[in-house]
Amino acid sequence: MAEANPRPIAAAARRPLSPHLQVYRMIFTMLMSGFHRVTGILLYTGTLLLAWWLLAAASDAQAFAVASGFLSSIIGRLVLLGYSWCLIHHLIGGIRHLIWDTGAGMEHPAREYLAKGTLISSVVLTILVWIIGYIVR
Q1: How far, in Å, CA of 117 to CA of 109, rounded?
Q2: pTM (2 d.p.)
Q3: Angle at CA 63, nearest 5°, toward 42 and 48?
Q4: Number of H helices, E strands in the chain
Q5: Which end of the chain is more exposed for a tag (fewer CB within 10 A), N or C?
Q6: What CATH number should be reported for the domain holding residue 66?
Q7: Digits of tens for pLDDT over the chain (137 positions)?
């Protein structure tokens, strides 16, 4: 026969299963890890927006005019700016994780430099992409 659990269920429910945020001090690499997850989620939303634009382009001129009108508005351009930053930031964050997978950059100063470099380079590259886009346009 199976033995009964010697601890009462109420006592087991009060005890945390694992350490959580109250145990850890927030550091920059933790923040960048959160940004990486959030940008991954936002990329799904942006991809739906891209699919809407492609479907509008594949259908009639009126649907494409509505989609292009929204995307060329101030709100639409802000959404596209955010989407492009999410795409670039997520890409660079993935490269940072790839570097960590090789075992490099895991020491304290290198880890912080990579995290800060991810944020700075994603902002700089997003601005560069938008400047080039307006020059080419």
Answers
A1: 12
A2: 0.78
A3: 15
A4: 5, 0
A5: N
A6: 1.20.1300.10
A7: 555 555 555 555 676 666 666 677 778 888 998 999 999 999 999 999 999 999 999 999 999 999 999 999 999 999 999 999 999 999 999 999 999 999 999 898 999 999 999 999 999 999 999 999 999 98
